[in-house]
Every structure is written in structure tokens, then in C-alpha cells.
Design a protein that fits this description.
Layout (H helix, E strand, L loop, with lengths): L1 E7 L2 E7 L5 H21 L4 E5 L6 H14 L6 E5 L1 E5 L6 E2 L8 H14 L13 E2 L7 H9 L5 E2 L24 E4 L2 H10 L12 E4 L2
Helix pairs in contact: 1-2, 2-3
């Protein structure tokens, strides 16, 4: 474990940095940490909120979570999967969430790659309930912040940075740290990255230009 100085706004902060030999090693270490924290939350009779991105970066973690939870018969019935964002489709009455069965849908990804994968090896009474997959509502985006606050806050947020410019969720470079959940225009860099994240896109003009995202 080493330490690096990172800039946060106008100041700097020293944070511990762990380096792993590959994505599988990182995924296993992170999965163990998550399950240990979730078990402590269960013993305290409270929910465990895990912030999750869709896409490529955390696949090894979600896979390791499924394997470890099944091997240890973990009780993750108080687990809440907090999705970062979702794509929006413009319509005559305003923007709406993209269909959950769209190949690029973040909530569809959350259902398939997180809930279904992790729940697969567990008995029903130990699984993450379907209603514990949360995502922001574009009609009331800041209500997401209040929902998370009321639930006690996110215990751990898994952060994936965009390959081209380091964007987090749909927040473009330069977003203020005070930004809250909101509807926003996707940057060109974010949309280009999503051609790789969701390879069923054939061209950039197929990638949605709007999204709802945590701050």
C-alpha cells in the first residue's frame, strides 16, 4: 500500500493507493471487502448501499462477488445496488428513461450483470431483492440525493473513470464537486467511450445524447 497526493478542488489530500497485478486480483480483493462490510451492516440491522457503474471496469468485481457470495452462502438480502446513471430518450413530453431491455441500458446492466449474477448462487431468502436496484428518476433527479441521504448514505461507491478523459458517471471533465443528481447533455468523449462499453452500437449517432447522473 502506497500513498499519493490527489487534488480535490482547491486543495490536496493524501490518500492510500493499492496496486494490483490485474483486474481479477482487484476484483477479488474488492469483492471480499464489500461482503465483509455488507455482513457488518446486516449484523447492525441496516441496509448496505453499494454505488455501482455499468460498463467494463467493474466486471471482474461483480463476477468475484457472485463467486464469493455463493461459496460463503452470504446473506445479502439488505444489499442495495445504487446505479450511477441512465440514458434518456427525448420525447414529446420530455426526456424519459431508455427501455430497460436496450443493450445499453444501465438499469438493464444492473439487473443482468449485478443482481442476477450475484443472486444466482444463493437461496431466495439470502438474495438481493429486485426492488433494491435503485437509479435516479429524470423527472425528479434530486430526489435521488434525498433518498440516499435518508437511507444513511452510500457505504462504498465503486468509481469507473472514462477511458478518454476520465469522466465519472456522465459528469464531464470540469464538473464541480458540489454537483447533484441531474439531467445533463453527454459529452462527445463520453459517447465515444460508450461505443466500446456497449459494442452493439454501430455508430456514434446511435449513442444517446442525454442522461441522468449522480453528481
Amino acid at each position: 500500500m502506497s500513498r499519493s497526493r490527489l487534488r480535490f478542488g482547491a486543495g490536496e489530500r493524501e490518500v492510500p493507493v493499492a496496486v494490483f497485478p490485474d483486474a481479477d486480483a482487484l476484483g477479488e480483493a474488492l469483492a471480499r471487502q464489500i461482503l465483509e462490510e455488507a455482513e457488518r451492516a446486516r449484523e447492525e440491522e441496516r441496509s448496505y448501499l453499494l454505488g455501482c457503474p455499468a460498463g467494463r471496469s467493474l466486471r471482474s468485481t461483480y463476477s468475484a462477488l457472485a463467486d464469493l457470495a455463493a461459496a460463503e452462502r452470504s446473506d445479502i438480502s439488505r444489499f442495495v445496488v445504487v446505479m450511477m446513471d441512465e440514458y434518456l430518450i427525448p420525447g414529446p413530453d420530455g426526456s424519459r428513461l431508455c427501455p430497460a431491455d436496450a443493450h445499453y441500458s444501465c438499469r438493464g446492466y444492473g439487473r443482468r450483470e449485478i443482481l442476477d449474477r450475484i443472486n444466482h448462487g444463493l437461496p431466495p431468502d439470502r438474495q438481493i431483492p429486485p426492488e433494491n436496484l435503485w437509479l435516479p428518476d429524470p423527472d425528479h433527479p434530486m430526489a435521488y440525493d434525498e433518498r440516499l441521504r435518508f437511507a444513511g448514505g452510500i457505504d462504498l461507491f465503486l468509481v469507473a473513470a472514462g477511458g478518454s478523459d476520465g469522466h465519472v458517471a456522465f459528469n464531464p471533465v470540469g464538473t464541480t464537486l458540489a454537483a447533484r443528481t441531474r439531467v445533463l447533455q453527454l459529452s462527445a468523449a463520453t459517447r465515444r467511450d460508450n461505443l466500446e462499453t456497449f459494442p452493439d452500437f454501430d455508430a456514434l449517432d446511435e449513442v444517446p445524447t442525454l442522461g441522468v447522473s449522480v453528481g
